[in-house]
Amino acid sequence: MRDDKVSMYQLAIICILVSVVPIVRYFPISLTDTAGRGAWVGALLTIIPAMLLVCVLHELMNKLKTKEGKPKNLNNVFDTVYGKMLGKILSFSYLLWVLIFVAAQLRFFGERLISTTYIYTPIIFLLTTMLILTFFVARGRISNFGRFAEIFFELFVIIIAFVVVASASNFELKNVWPINKQEIIGIPQAILRGTSIFGTLTIGMFFAEKIEDRKNIKKYGIMATLVITVIGLIGIFVTLGTFGKDLLPTLAQPFFMALKVISVFGVIERIEAVFITFWVVADFILITYDIIVASNICKQRFKLTKRRIAVTPLVFIIFILSMLIANNFFALQILFTKFLANINIIFGLAVPLVTYIIAKARGLLKPKNE
């Protein structure tokens, strides 16, 4: 049987699709709240820390010296750089972060469907249905999941192209330009907040042993950051360009509100159902991806024989957390913009960067000529 592996290209595609979910949900609101009409500048400049992150991950996963040679995954990186005790603490911290994050995303998925489509459907039914689907896929082969994401990405490109063309008629330049002095001051904070969406690249390294061409982390990682940045800019222009800096932060779901007013050849079309279906699939990919990451952490740290053993208890924990994490949609939105986004920056960017600096200082990275 062929090894259960994914290519770095497939992992990059998965990270791109996973990033779509936070971009749609809170990215435009979060950046506009700090930089106003300069939100798009902040979204554009997130490419700088994102590319730094990619370079750091490439160095750690390919040049860190361990007893076995290259590190198996991010767990081994932490053990080598910090020692086994601190390494385990960091791994379990990431595990807790992933579980809280995916629980919040699952609850967001349910709340959004109730507010847009299935108004009278019990949220517990929606959450259970999604978890059942992700349960079976997460227990399966990672290679199959990678191929599914690769195929779905082609449809995604078509949908994004349609959004750009169809929303152009509602775009108003005055909503994004000029940028005043106060908004310029808020751009650095917007960059910091925007960086939170790139944490998906970091957690993917927890199953780096399943990547068959990790030498291409930098190549396809940079590709992913470029595409994610473009998607972020589209999310900003579609929402901020339509509603403006004053109205946008007051909307619960600005992206879907923008879709409702899309005009195609002068005729208003109720096309939001198509996009809701698309983002349900994007939610499915995000939740499955996070469960796979969490189960791989558990496999190594709890010395399990198979990763799939950890999936069942993880799904139950995620379900319980999703029911307890917030009371309503607005509480969830505040949780994301004020708390989870900041935690994403710490685990997604700060920890890998600090790890790289310590590894470099300790001489644990191979020289370039080796």
User: What kind of sheet is the major sheet?
Assistant: 2 strands, antiparallel
Helix tally? Answer: 15
H-E order: HHHHHHHHHHHHEEHHH
| Global shape | globular
Mean pLDDT: 84
Computed over alpha carbons, the radius of gyration is 20 Å
What fraction of the residues are assigned to beta strands by DSSP?
under 5%
Distance between the termini: 34 Å
What does this protein structure show overall?
The radius of gyration is 20 Å and the shape is globular. Strands 1-2 form a two-stranded antiparallel ribbon. It contains 15 helices and 2 strands. The two termini are 34 Å apart. The chain is mostly helical.
Keywords:
single chain, about 375 residues, mainly alpha, two-stranded antiparallel ribbon, 15 helices
SSE order and pairing:
Blueprint: H1 8-25, H2 27-35, H3 39-45, H4 47-63, H5 74-82, H6 84-116, H7 123-139, H8 142-167, H9 181-194, H10 199-203, H11 217-247, H12 254-260, E1 263-264, E2 267-268, H13 272-301, H14 311-324, H15 329-361
Antiparallel strand pairs: 1-2
What would you say about this model in short?
The protein is 73% helix and 1% strand. The chain has 370 residues and is mainly α. The two termini are 34 Å apart.
